[in-house]
Write a structure and sequence with these properties.
heterodimer; A: 191 residues; mainly alpha; 6 helices; B: 278 residues; alpha+beta; Heat Shock Protein 90; 2 domains
C-alpha cells in the first residue's frame, strides 16, 4: 500500500514538471490519493471495529467533500484539503497509538513495529507541511514558490521514516522465520 | 532570537509559516515521545505485575508442595508409630512358640492378637478416611459437612451447625473434595486460633454462583489480614486454601459482620464450573 502510494507520488512529481499548466489539478489529485492511501493503511492497521468504522465513514465524507470541491473548481480546495486531511490523519494516528498502548501484546515496544514508523512519517510530513500548504493554497503552482524547499525537507523525513518501516518489517519477518525454523528443528529436540 | 533571525532571513520564509511549522512539528514530536515513554511505562508496570503474579504462584506452589509433604509425613508417622507397633505386638502373640503353649494360653494369645489386628484395621480405616472421607464420596458435601460439624459439636468445646439451602444436585466429586478440604482448613483454623463458641455454615446459590458462608464469634481475619498473610512466608493453610480455590476459579472473602460481633468467611464459586457436566 505504502509502496503504491510512493510510486504515485513519484510519478505525480514528474507530471507536475511536465504539465506546469495543470500542476494544481495534479497536486490536488495526488493529495486525494495520498489521503486515501493513508486512511486505507489505518483501516488495515487498526483492529478495533468502532475505530475502523469511524475512519471509514470520516474518509468517505472527506473524499466526497474533496471531489465536490474539485468538481466545482473551488480555489480554496488546497486550503480545506490540507487542513482536514491533516486533522483527520492526526486523529487516526491517535486512534492507532491508543490501540497500540492498550493492546494485550504490550511486550512489543511500539517502535519495533513497522506501522509505528509509517504513522510517524505520515504525521510528521502532514503536520510539518500543513502551514506551508495553507500559506500557498492560493498559488497556481506552488512548486515555483521560493519556500517549496519546506515540502522537500518533510518529504525526505517522511521517506526516511518509511525506509525505517521497511527495514523493521523485513527484520521482523526474518525474526519470525528464524523462530519458526528453531521451533521445527527436530534434530535439536530430544525424542 | 536565533529562530527569529532564521525566520526573517531574506524574508524568504514568513514568520507565521516558520513558527507555525515549528510549533506543529514540536507538538507531533511531543506526541510521539509521550506515546513511546508512556508505552515503556506501561510495559514496565505490566512486567512488574507479571513478576508479582509469578512470585505469588511460586509461593502457592511451594505451600502446596510443603503441605503435601507434611501430609505424607503424617501418614508415614501414623503407619510407623501406630500401625507398626500394633502389628509387631500381634506378631509376638502369634510366634512359633504358640504351638507349645497350653490351650488356654493359646486361646488368650489368639484373642489378644485378634484384638490388636482389629485395632490396626480401625487405625488404617481412620487414616484412609482422613485422606478421603467416605461420607463425602458416597453422600456428598452436605452430609460430609454435617458429619464433620456433628463430630465438633459432640466434643463439647464448640457448637457447630450447618444448613444447605440450595443443594439439590451434587457437584463434581473433585469439586466437592476441594470445597470440603477448604471448609476443613477454615474450621481447623477457627478451632485453633479463634477461641469461638460457635460456627455456623450456610450454603446457597444466587445468579449462577455457589456460596458457602461460615460465621463464628471468635477472633477472625479480615480481607486485608488474609492478603497480608498470603503474601508472607507464614500462613501455609491460607495459601493452601487460596491454591485450592484457584483450581475452581473461586474466590474467598474474609470480613467482619456489619454488627461487628461475628466474623464471616465467604467462598464464592461459579456454579457451571462446579456442577456435574450433563
Amino acid at each position: 500500500m505504502i509502496f503504491f502510494y510512493l510510486l504515485i507520488l513519484f510519478f505525480s512529481n514528474f507530471l507536475i514538471g511536465a504539465f506546469h499548466n495543470r500542476a494544481s489539478l495534479i497536486v490536488s489529485v495526488s493529495a486525494m490519493i495520498e489521503y486515501a492511501s493513508f486512511s486505507i493503511f489505518f483501516l488495515l492497521s487498526i483492529q478495533n471495529k468502532t475505530l475502523k468504522n469511524s475512519i471509514f465513514v470520516a474518509s468517505i465524507i472527506f473524499l466526497s467533500f474533496e471531489l465536490f470541491l474539485l468538481y466545482f473548481n473551488n480555489v480554496n480546495f488546497d486550503f480545506w484539503a490540507a487542513l482536514f486531511s491533516t486533522i483527520l490523519i492526526v486523529i487516526f494516528s491517535i486512534f492507532f497509538f491508543y490501540e497500540q498502548i492498550n493492546s494485550v501484546n504490550t511486550n512489543l515496544i511500539i517502535y519495533n513495529s513497522y506501522q509505528f514508523w509509517i504513522v510517524v512519517g505520515c504525521i510528521i510530513y502532514l503536520t510539518g507541511t500543513l502551514f506551508f500548504f495553507l500559506y500557498t493554497s492560493n498559488m497556481k503552482d506552488r512548486s515555483l514558490s521560493p519556500i517549496w524547499g519546506i515540502n522537500f525537507v518533510f518529504e525526505i523525513i517522511k521517506n526516511i521514516c518509511f525506509s525505517i518501516a521497511f527495514i523493521v518489517a523485513k527484520n521482523n519477518i526474518r525474526k519470525i522465520a528464524t523462530q519458526n525454523l528453531e521451533d521445527t528443528n527436530v534434530f535439536q529436540k530430544p525424542l | 532570537m536565533i529562530l527569529l533571525q532564521i525566520a526573517n532571513l531574506d524574508n524568504k520564509v514568513p514568520t507565521v509559516l516558520f513558527f507555525g511549522t515549528i510549533a506543529m512539528l514540536a507538538l507531533t514530536i511531543g506526541l510521539i515521545v509521550f506515546i513511546i515513554f508512556h508505552q515503556r511505562k506501561v510495559i514496565r508496570f505490566q512486567m512488574q505485575l507479571q513478576k508479582m503474579e509469578f512470585d505469588q504462584q511460586k509461593m502457592l506452589l511451594n505451600a502446596s508442595i510443603r503441605l503435601q509433604e507434611e501430609e505424607r509425613q503424617r501418614i508415614a508417622a501414623d503407619l510407623h508409630d501406630d500401625a507398626g507397633p500394633l502389628l509387631a505386638t500381634a506378631r509376638l502373640y502369634l510366634n512359633e512358640n504358640l504351638v507349645n503353649l497350653d490351650k488356654t494360653t493359646q486361646l488368650q494369645n489368639i484373642y489378644n492378637a485378634k484384638q490388636i489386628i482389629d485395632d490396626t484395621i480401625q487405625l488404617i480405616r481412620n487414616i484412609s478416611h482422613s485422606l478421603m472421607p467416605p461420607t463425602l464420596k458416597n453422600f456428598g458435601l452436605e452430609s460430609a459437612v454435617n458429619d464433620l460439624f456433628q463430630k465438633i459439636s459432640s466434643s463439647g468445646s464448640m457448637n457447630a451447625s450447618s444448613r444447605f439451602h440450595d443443594y439439590r444436585e451434587r457437584l463434581q466429586p473433585e469439586t466437592e473434595l476441594i470445597i470440603f478440604r477448604v471448609i476443613q482448613e477454615l474450621v481447623n483454623n477457627i478451632l485453633k486460633h479463634s477461641n469461638a463458641s460457635f460456627i455456623h455454615l450456610t450454603q446457597n446459590t444466587n445468579n449462577n454462583k455457589f456460596f458457602i458462608r461460615l460465621h463464628h464469634d471468635g477472633r477472625g481475619l479480615t480481607q486485608s489480614d488474609f492478603e497480608k498473610l498470603n503474601k508472607s512466608s507464614v500462613g501455609l493453610g491460607l495459601k493452601n486454601i487460596q491454591s485450592r480455590l484457584k483450581v475452581l476459579h473461586g474466590k474467598i472473602f474474609f470480613e467482619k459482620d456489619i454488627s461487628q460481633t461475628y466474623f464471616k468467611v465467604t467462598i464464592e464459586l461459579i456454579k457451571e464450573d462446579a456442577s456435574v457436566p450433563q
